[in-house]
Amino acid sequence: MSSKLIRGTFILTLGTFISKFLGLFYVIPFYSIVGEEATSLYQYGYVPYTIFISIATAGVPLAVSKFIAKYNALGEYAVGRRLFKSGLMIMSVTGFLSFLIMYICAPAFANMMIVDEKQIYTQEEVAYVIRAVSFALIIVPFMSLMRGFFQGHQSMGPSAVSQVVEQIARIIFLLAGAYLVLNVMNGTVVEAIGVATFAAFVGAVFGLLVLLWYWKKRKKHLDELLEKDTGSVQVSLVDIYREIVVYAIPFIFVGIAIPLYQLIDTVTFNRAMAAIGQAEISDTVFGIVNFSTQKIVIIPVSLATAFAMTLVPLVTSSFVSGEPGKVKKQLDQTFQVLLFLTVPAVVGIMLLAEPFYTAFYEYSELGTAILRTYAPVAILFALFTVTAAILQGINEQRFTVFSLLVGILLKLSLNIPLIKLFQGEGAIYATAIGYGASIIINLLVIRHYAGYSLRSIGGKISQIALFNVIMAAAVFAVYFAMHPFFSIDSKLQSTLLIAICAVIGAAVYFYLSFRTGLASALFGTRLDRMKNKFRKAKI
Fold first, then answer.
1. Which residue ranges run through the membrane (predicted)?
2. Based on the number of CB atoms within 10 Å of its own CB, is 326 exposed (0-12), middle (13-18) or buried (19 or more)?
3. Phi first, then psi: what are they for 120, rounded to 5°?
C-alpha cells in the first residue's frame, strides 16, 4: 500500500472516529436538558429517518469511490465525472422524494408507534418530530455522493472534515436549541425534541458547505485530470449505475442492520407492552432500551471495530492474490484484536452498570438492569460488522444480505413474545438471537469459501476469557469495597468510581497480556518497539 493511501485511510478513519465519538457523548448533556421520558420521543423520530437515510446513502460513498478509482486507474477520468454530474441530479431528486414520503407518511409511522392512549406521547406529537427530522433527507444523499467522488480521487480530507463539521454543527444546534426552547422560550418538550431532530438538517447544511469549499479549491486540479482522459472506454449511464448498485447493496444492508432492529422495536415494543397492561411505562422503557443504554453499549463496538476493520483491506488483498496462509493469519489477528478489545469493555460495563448509567444519565434501577443485560450484545454487534466486511473482502457479500434477513426474521418473530415475558430485556434477547444467527451464518460462509475456522484461535480465545475472569474478580473486589463510600446518585462520584475501577481493571488485564506475550502476538513488532523505548527511558 502506498503512503498516500495509508495516509488517506488514516485521515478518513480519524474523521469517522471523531464524528462517532461526538455522536456518542452528546447524549450526556442532552439527557440533562430534556429528561428520561423525552429520549423515547427523540428515538421515535430518528429511527425512521435512519432507515431512510441508510437506504439512500449507506453504500453510496464507498461504491462511487470504488467506481471512480477503478476508471481513474485506467486513465478514464471522464467516466467518473459523468457519474458525478448525473449522480448529483439523481441524488437531488431522490433526496427530495424521500423527504416528501417521510413528511407525508409521518402520521402513518406515528400510528404504528403509539398504540395506546395511556402512552406519554400522542400520534400527533410523534408525527411532528418525524417531520422535523425529515428535512435532512433533502441534503444528505447529495452530500454523500460528493464524499464518494473525492474518495475516488484518493482525497479523504474532504469527507473526514465534512463529517466532523456536520456532527459538531448538529450537536451545537441540538443542545442549544433544546435548551433555549425549554428554558428561555418556555416551550414544550415536544417542541424541544422537534428542534433537536431538525438539527440533522442544520448539520447537513454545514457538512455540504465544507464539501463545496473543497470542490471550489480543487476543481482546477480535477479539470486538469480530464485533459489527460484517454477516451478509449465508452460506458453507458445504465452500465455505470448497474455497477454502482452491485457495489452499494452489501454496504446498505450492513449499514441498516442496527436501525432495522430498532425499527422492529419501534413498531412492536409499545404494542407488546400495552398487551400486558404496561402502556403507562412503555415509552420510558423504550427510551432506555433503544436510546440510553444503546448509546453506552455501542462505545466498545466503535472502538474495537475501528481497530479490527483496518485489517480487513489486507485480507481482501491476500485473498485476491491467492494466498490462503496469509488470509488465515490475517483473519486470526482480526478476530483476536476484536475480542481482545471488546470483551473487557463489555465485562467492565456489566460490572459497573450502575455507576455507568448514573454518570451518563441519572441513577435508575431499571436503566442499570437493562444496561447490564444489553452490554454483552456489543460483542455480537462487533462480530457481525467484521464478519460482514470479511464476506465483502472474499467477494461473497450476497450472504451478508441472506444472514441479515435471517436475523431480522428471528427478531421480528420473537420480539413480541419475549417482550411480553421479560419487558425491556425481552427486546434485547430477541436482538441477541437475531445477531447470533447472522454471525453463525457468516462464519460458516467464511469457513466454506476461505477455509477458515475460529477453532484455529481457540487457545487465544480461552486465554482472553481467562484474563477477563481474573480482571473481573479484581474489579468486582475493588467495586464492592469502595461502593459504600460513594453516593449512587451522584454523577461526579459515579465517574470517579468508574475511573478507579477501570484503571485497576486495565492494569490487571494488560499486565497479564504483556506477561504472557498475548499483546505482542496480537499487535506485533510495533508494541515490542514501544516496550523497548519505555525500558530505555527508565534506564
1. 12-34, 46-68, 88-114, 126-146, 167-186, 192-215, 244-264, 296-315, 335-353, 373-394, 401-421, 427-445, 465-486, 492-512
2. middle
3. -65, -40
Specify if 114 maps to a domain.
yes
- Residue 410 within any structural domain of the chain: no
Question: Of 365, 129, 415, which is closest to residue 262 (Cα–Cα)?
Answer: 415
Q: Give CA–CA dist 235/231, Å, rounded.
A: 10
Measuring CA to CA, how many Å separate 79 from each of 163, 217, 218, 223, 343? 26, 22, 18, 13, 46
Report yes or no on 327 lying in a domain. Answer: no
Q: Which residue has the cell 505482542?
A: 520
Residue 468 resides in a domain: no
pTM of the model as a whole: 0.83
Containing domain of residue 128, as a range? 1-246
Instruction: Give how many domains the chain has, as a whole number.
Output: 1
Report d(CA 329, CA 286) in Å as an integer.
Answer: 42
Phi then psi for 416, rounded to 5 degrees? -65, -45
* Residue labelled with grid coordinates 454487534: 381
| Cβ neighbours around 507 below 10 Å, total | 12
